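Re: [ENG-882] Designed sequences occasionally contain unexpected residues at chain ends

Forwarding the minimal case from QA. Structure tokens:
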């Protein structure tokens, strides 16, 4: 009977150790995901329209100043909304459009993952 109790106690001890290790791994994962979320949030301004302050939709770059707006936010005036320089030309940036889309997706996935881990 004593050996059975010792074996059960040892089994519980191993179980507890495994649970503690799982909790530590979860905490490390949570910390890494939070750092990734912070990195994404820090880069958000690169994908933000200077007019509506949302994530760029069909990014349009003004020449010569280089300020970027959503295509729907670019004003009809000949002056840049941000710096007041005369806008000679505007063009759509496919690359920035692609990057802004990827940014939105990464941020969404990281937030879902963080929510999932914090709920566990």
């Amino acid at each position: 009977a004593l050996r059975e109790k010792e074996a059960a106690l040892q089994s519980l001890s191993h179980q507890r150790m495994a649970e503690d290790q799982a909790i530590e791994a979860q905490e490390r994962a949570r910390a890494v995901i939070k750092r990734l979320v912070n990195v994404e949030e820090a880069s958000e301004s690169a994908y933000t329209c200077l007019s509506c302050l949302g994530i760029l939709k069909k990014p349009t770059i003004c020449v010569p100043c280089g300020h970027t707006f959503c295509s729907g936010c670019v004003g009809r005036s000949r002056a840049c909304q941000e710096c007041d320089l005369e806008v000679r030309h505007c063009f759509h940036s496919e690359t920035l459009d692609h990057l802004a889309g990827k940014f939105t997706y990464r941020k969404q996935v990281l937030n879902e993952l963080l929510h999932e881990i914090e709920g566990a």
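QA comment: On inspection the terminal residues look reasonable. The CA atoms of residues 32 and 114 lie 10 Å apart. Proposing we downgrade this to a documentation issue.
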